[in-house]
Write the structure tokens for this entry.
Amino acid sequence: VVMIEGHADRQPILKGARYMDNLELSTARAAAVFRAMAPEFDGLLNSQRQPLLGAAGYGELRPRTAPYRPGASLDSPEDRRIEIRFVFEPS
């Protein structure tokens, strides 16, 4: 399975912004990449007959930076990212 994973920093979303919160923002990031990649994976299934491509948003729950160190910034470009993870099943 190929998982597209969206992430966000801990900066709160402003009221009236396009997204309600960081979870929604990170999911939208993952969905955009999913839509771009989906045609290449169309019809491809894994051994359980499920689609090979998946997407998920994690908001600020999986930071790349140390989120709770003294003086840590809520605005971390490293945490605003897309990761593509390949999940293999044992043979």
Notes: Residues 63 and 79 are 5 Å apart (CA to CA).
